Amino acid sequence: MSNNNLIKGSLQTIILKLLEENEKMYGYEITQRVKELTEGEIKITEGALYPALHKLEAEGLLTTEIQQVDNRVRKYYSLTKNGQKEVSAKMSELQSFVGNLQRILDPEWRPGLA
Amino acid sequence: MSNNNLIKGSLQTIILKLLEENEKMYGYEITQRVKELTEGEIKITEGALYPALHKLEAEGLLTTEIQQVDNRVRKYYSLTKNGQKEVSAKMSELQSFVGNLQRILDPEWRPGLA
DNA sequence: AAAAATACCCAAGCTTCTTATGTATATAAT
DNA sequence: ATTATATACATAAGAAGCTTGGGTATTTTT
């Protein structure tokens, strides 16, 4: 896992959204899913991911469940009810931010344009 | 100037892009332009803006020019040649990041869709 | 046998932001 | 007339969120 800047603040939203779609995922799986979806362009570092997961759990948005797979431990995360509510909030926050970014950076841009 | 999170890392790109379009701007003007373009949704704080401007100047991407307007001092910033080169680099970096974000967060999304 | 992949974790340090503060002039409101 | 808001710059402490670089352990590939 290495080299990509930016993200700063969107990692939580990414985690929550992936868990909304997948019911239950473990850390390593999340890094692989993101890598796959972005064709290797975004690589979530473990040093960023695990603290983020622990924080979301501490905030009551995620719960964990340990599973044993071939002598290896997997820690599955899933959304709590509060977590489910937070997904939409974080998503619309991020979408509106991206919209505003476009308005600043691309004068031609308006919603509903390619 | 207050209350908006996110941004984290995109401020430099915003500054450079605005200066590409406007030749010369002063700090306060930048905060007002962003506020105007986003209908008040993004407010650049001065505590974020001025250090960012100073850093870009120290990196040789911006130059300054002091002007006196009605007993008030204005510090105009404009792009250096290196600054002009950096705009496109920072822009494509950010655009590709936003594209990747969409791919993660919106499974339906693909380039050239509303 | 060695390397890479799978799977978790932590800590130091850096960057970037928020919040709070300070200085100073001009204009609008009470 | 005085106060508040707008204009215009700046700095500094602290928080948040990363990167980098460790560490542990098993399984699969080379």
TrEMBL record, chains A, B:
Any one Gene Ontology molecular-function term assigned to this protein's record: DNA binding
Pfam families: PadR
InterPro entries assigned to the protein according to its UniProt record, in alphabetical order: Metal_resp_DNA-bind_regulator (IPR052509), Tscrpt_reg_PadR_N (IPR005149), WH-like_DNA-bd_sf (IPR036388), WH_DNA-bd_sf (IPR036390)
Record-linked PANTHER family: PADR-FAMILY TRANSCRIPTIONAL REGULATOR, TRANSCRIPTIONAL REGULATOR RV3488
Occurrences of domain Transcription regulator PadR N-terminal (ranges): 15-87
Lineage: Bacteria, Pseudomonadati, Bacteroidota, Cytophagia, Cytophagales
Keyword field: DNA-binding
Name of the protein described by the UniProt record: DNA-binding PadR family transcriptional regulator
